């Protein structure tokens, strides 16, 4: 065996071949340095153990694939992934807590457990972007009350929260103005729904809105009567007097871009709240739904006056009359339509900035009703300002509203093919909109068996195109199902 330098010293100086090899070996030894020992180099050796590291993109794709299952299996998959290694933990935690549901009275996901998590686990708080606070349907008692102070603590501990949903919980008004510990806050979406009644004449709603300076979208859905309301007119439901409205504490301004009011009682109160918070100055999109016959008079009057006073900045409006004609006789439906004609329509011309309009009408399975619905549709379009550019119309047939005397098959397969519809009136009304770009005709039926038949759809398109040749030539007609 040879050590460093000994092999060169033992060679004959007179041999030219060996001299050449010595020069080459000396050069290699100089490159290797003094730590190089040829005799100590093993002939065979095993490579070191290397743990493969997946790129971040592959880990993200694996987790996205594992969460595309039902909720129970999704949670199991994410919990298993969080135990793989420290690199997988933040990604698995983000998917696991991105949408968090808290149920009042639940054995595990209750309010107490959630408060413990957000107070002691800031890493989890950073992952929560959608928070849903719900009431337990099985709970027989009143449940845990929620107030603006509790919501303020949630918002202060969840820095990336973008969507907040409150469903069925009992609100509790704060006796004094909410102390601003942190904030103010902004949200992309705030949704309050399934609220049977508000306390303190709706003051708790003002407390909640007072926490925010900006809301991208606010949705109020299925809200019941407010307590201590005064019935001033039996035909229009319970209302608040001007003295009661003026006594409400006015919260700080809240900018709202999109406002959705779905089946809310006492609409005048909520519209007054938005006036007081100066939200009407920033509202650009408004969607309203009347879901009960009792709501029609107040709905039409309050909405019409709101349009006349503060509707100048609205660019997108959607009106849904769904459920308000359910199981109604022809005479009652005619009376409801007259109230809409007299109360709602006078406010529509004041929408000077309106560019997009949508109208959905759900009517019962009664051959005498389509004529009234068509007159209502034409009248609403006639009252709109002429600068509207996009219109969507939907006639929806409520097949479950059949009465015993109307059990025979309906005389037409599609609402748009009803013989009671006078298309000449619609053609004349649409000619008012000189800048109309698109009009979309949408149909929907509660009878799911009819949705697989394609022939009525083609016939429907052909009939409408025949009735509206100018829009057909401009390629402004669109058709779909809602």
Architecture overview:
- It is built from 17 helices and 16 strands.
- It has 482 residues and is an alpha/beta fold.
- α11 runs parallel beside α12.
- It is globular and about 80 Å long.
Compact overview of the structure:
The chain is of the alpha/beta class and 482 residues long. 35% of the residues lie in helices and 22% in strands.
Give the arrangement of secondary structure elements:
Elements: H1 6-9, H2 16-32, H3 56-66, H4 71-82, H5 88-97, E1 99-104, H6 111-120, H7 122-125, E2 130-135, E3 145-146, H8 148-157, E4 163-167, E5 170-171, E6 185-195, H9 203-209, E7 212-223, E8 230-233, E9 237-239, H10 242-246, E10 255-264, H11 267-276, E11 285-290, H12 296-310, E12 316-321, H13 330-343, E13 356-364, H14 370-383, E14 390-398, H15 423-430, E15 438-445, H16 455-467, H17 469-473, E16 477-481
Parallel strand pairs: 1-2, 2-4, 3-5, 4-6, 6-7, 7-10, 10-11, 11-12, 12-13, 13-14, 14-15, 15-16
Antiparallel strand pairs: 8-9
Helix pairs in contact: 4-5, 11-12, 12-13, 13-14
End-to-end span in angstroms?
Answer: 88 Å
The quaternary structure here is single chain
Query: Biggest sheet: strands, sense, closure?
Result: 12 strands, parallel
Number of strands: 16
Structural class: alpha/beta
Q: Roughly what is the average pLDDT, rounded to an integer? A: 77
Q: List the strand order in the largest sheet.
A: 1-2-4-6-7-10-11-12-13-14-15-16
Strand content: 15-25%
Total of helices? 17
Portion of residues within helices: 25-40%
Radius of gyration, in Å, reads: 35 Å
Q: Based on Cα principal axes, name the global outline.
A: globular
- Uncertain residue segments: 1-15, 17-41, 231-236, 407-411, 446-455
């Amino acid at each position: 065996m040879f050590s460093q330098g000994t092999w060169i010293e033992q060679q004959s100086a007179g041999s030219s071949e060996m001299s050449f090899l010595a020069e080459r070996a000396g050069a290699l030894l100089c490159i290797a340095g003094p730590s190089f020992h040829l005799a100590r180099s093993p002939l065979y050796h095993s490579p070191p153990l290397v743990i493969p590291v997946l790129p971040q993109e592959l880990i993200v794709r694996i987790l996205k694939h594992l969460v595309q299952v039902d909720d129970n299996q999704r949670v199991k998959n994410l919990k298993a992934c969080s135990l793989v290694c420290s690199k997988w933990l933040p990604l698995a935690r983000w998917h696991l807590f991105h949408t968090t549901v808290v149920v009042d009275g639940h054995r595990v996901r209750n309010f107490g457990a959630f408060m413990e998590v957000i107070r002691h686990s800031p890493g989890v708080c950073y992952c929560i972007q959608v928070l849903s606070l719900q009431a337990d349907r099985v709970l027989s008692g009143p449940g845990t009350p929620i107030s603006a102070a509790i919501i303020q603590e949630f918002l202060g501990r969840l820095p990336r929260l973008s969507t907040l949903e409150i469903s069925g919980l009992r609100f509790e008004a704060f006796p004094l103005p909410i102390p601003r510990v942190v904030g103010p806050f902004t949200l992309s979406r705030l949704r309050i729904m399934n609220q049977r009644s508000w306390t303190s004449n709706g003051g708790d709603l003002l407390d909640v809105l007072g926490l925010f300076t900006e809301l991208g979208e606010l949705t109020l859905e299925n809200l019941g009567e407010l307590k201590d309301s005064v019935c001033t007119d039996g035909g229009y439901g319970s209302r608040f007097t001007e003295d009661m409205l003026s006594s409400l504490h006015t919260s700080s301004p809240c900018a709202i871009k999109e406002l959705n009011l779905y089946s809310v009682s006492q609409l005048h109160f909520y519209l007054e709240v938005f006036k007081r918070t100066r939200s009407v100055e920033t509202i650009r999109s408004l969607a309203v739904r009347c879901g009960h016959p009792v709501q029609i008079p107040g709905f039409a009057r309050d909405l019409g006056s709101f349009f006349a006073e503060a509707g100048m900045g609205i660019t997108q409006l959607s009106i849904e009359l769904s459920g308000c004609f359910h199981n109604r006789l022809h005479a009652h439906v005619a009376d409801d339509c007259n109230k809409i004609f007299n109360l709602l329509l006078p406010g529509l011309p004041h929408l000077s900035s309106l560019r997009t309009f949508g109208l959905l009408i759900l009517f019962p399975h009664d051959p005498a009703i389509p004529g009234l619905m068509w007159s209502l549709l034409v009248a609403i379009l006639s009252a709109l300002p002429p600068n509207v550019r996009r219109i969507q119309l939907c006639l929806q047939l409520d097949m479950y509203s059949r009465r015993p005397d109307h059990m025979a098959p309906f005389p037409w397969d599609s609402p748009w093919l009803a013989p009671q519809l006078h298309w000449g009136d619609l053609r004349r009304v649409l000619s008012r909109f000189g800048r109309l770009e698109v009009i979309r005709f949408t149909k929907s039926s509660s009878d799911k068996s009819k949705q697989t038949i394609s022939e009525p759809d083609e016939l429907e398109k052909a009939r409408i195109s025949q009735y509206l040749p100018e829009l057909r030539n401009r390629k402004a007609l669109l058709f779909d199902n809602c």
